[in-house]
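Quick one before lunch.
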Amino acid sequence: MPEYKIQYFNVKALAEPLRFLLSYKNIPFDDVRIQKEDWPEIKKTMPMGQMPIMEVDGKRAHQSLAMARYLAKQVGLNGANDWEDLEIDMAVDTINDFRNKIGAVQYEADEEVQKKKRVTLDSEIIPFYLEKLEAMAAANDGHFALSKLTWADLYFVGILDYLNFMAKKDLTENHPNLTKVKETVLALEGIKNWVAKRPETEL
Ligand SMILES: N[C@@H](CCC(=O)N[C@@H](CS)C(=O)NCC(=O)O)C(=O)O
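Model of the glutathione complex:
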């Protein structure tokens, strides 16, 4: 089995789907967490000056979605053909669009502007995405694609705490099919083990 290393800050956020995918098959990995004060020096050594970074037998990769897609293939949570992969990717990209829209508000530096943007986020953007995502999960029997467990489900649940933190609310509340996705993923043996032993972090 290859040796895996995941390098990120001491948060779940963009690295957690990668940690979930490896944990799903109980694949051991070196879980490296960079302290904020060490980051400026380490940043200079990163391919794009950012994390997460994954190493597979010493080979370095970056870009969280590309890495998650790779790991999905290693653990059998990808599609059986190109069309199935497309369906999974559509769900993942939609979840990622949602993340970017929430992030654009959370990381708005001007407090007054952030307040205004948050009103639109709460009244329009979040309801729009939650309705669409809930409908997708309803149409796929509590999954995001193919009516079965795929890496789209692990991706969503992996970044959910981060989304909730940025949105300042529990996004799955009152959304029974999104709740089902969450419960299904968190009930997987490998994920349960990982969640029980991972460092406690807010996001
Ligand atoms: N598209 C990249 C984005 C990575 C990214 O935004 N990383 C942030 C943390 S979430 C980062 O490294 N920030 C520190 C910096 O830019 O100095 C991915 O998905 O991996």
